[in-house]
From TrEMBL:
CDD domains: TM_PBP2. This is Amino acid ABC transporter permease. The keyword Transmembrane helix applies. Residues 19-208 form the ABC transmembrane type-1 domain. PANTHER family: GLUTAMINE TRANSPORT SYSTEM PERMEASE PROTEIN GLNP, MEMBRANE COMPONENT OF AMINO ACID ABC TRANSPORTER. GO terms for cellular component: ATP-binding cassette (ABC) transporter complex. InterPro entries: AA_ABC_transptr_permease_3TM, ArtM/GltK/GlnP/TcyL/YhdX-like, MetI-like, MetI-like_sf. One of its GO terms (molecular function) is transmembrane transporter activity. Belongs to the binding-protein-dependent transport system permease family. HisMQ subfamily. GO terms for biological process: amino acid transport. It is found in: Cell membrane. Pfam families: BPD_transp_1. It comes from Paenisporosarcina quisquiliarum. It is a multi-pass membrane protein.
């Protein structure tokens, strides 16, 4: 085995900068996905049929097509159709945020439906408006149920974020490719950023397990 990590040493600061780019992109995409996912989840449980149909169709499209296809579509189709020269970063945020919303909407919908129906019936009997009931009673309880599943979505999004390298976003993966092209050795930089991805995912997984343990303790108390 012929490995020479000495050649990538001068490039380590350059590759480490990709951590910030990756985390920033994942954080923004998650905010977009969570906000839109919450709206879609409320559409899915609404008694208004057009809202049901829209949310169901949205989820079917974004869960039924490859994420990389959605990414490429935003990056290439928007300039072609609108003339707007969209940046790679914005394309990535839109594609990942809208895709994540489809999955998060299912997580939140399941969490809402897991809340005891008696809570809803009691609020309605007391004349609590639907919006206030959702905001103050149902959603806070649903969030407690769905936190572990949301952490899994965060982990998945962090790993899949490497796809943005295909549209030249200078994330961890793209920086490893740049270094590999510069030194004509690809395995070492890929192995290095692979370790960084593993550390990030391991950290998120540990946080997820801590949250689950605390939730179990609170449920038992």
């Amino acid at each position: 085995m012929n490995l020479d990590f000495g050649q990538i040493t001068p490039y380590i600061p350059f590759m480490l900068e990709g951590i910030w780019v990756t985390l920033k992109f994942v954080a923004v995409a998650l905010v977009v996905g969570f906000i839109l996912g919450t709206v879609l989840a409320l559409f899915k449980i609404s008694h208004i049929k057009p809202l049901n149909w829209f949310a169901t169709a949205y989820t079917s499209i974004f869960r039924g097509t490859p994420l990389i296809l959605q990414l490429m579509t935003f990056y290439f189709a928007i300039p072609q159709l609108t003339g707007y020269d969209i940046s790679p970063f914005l394309s990535a945020v839109l594609a990942f945020g809208l895709n994540s919303a489809a999955y998060i909407s299912e997580i939140i919908r399941a969490g809402i439906q897991a809340v005891d129906r008696g809570q809803t019936e009691a609020a309605m009997a007391l004349g609590v408006p639907y919006r206030q009931m959702m905001k103050d009673i149902i959603l806070p309880q649903a969030m407690k149920n769905i936190l572990p599943a949301l952490m899994n979505e965060v982990i998945t999004l962090t790993k899949e974020s490497a796809l943005v390298s295909t549209i030249s976003v200078l994330d961890l993966m793209r920086r490893a490719q740049v270094v590999g092209a510069d030194i004509y050795r690809n395995f070492e930089p890929l192995l290095f950023v692979g370790l960084i991805y593993w550390i990030m995912v391991f950290g998120l997984s540990t946080i997820g397990r801590m949250i689950e343990r605390r939730l179990k303790v609170s449920d038992q108390s």
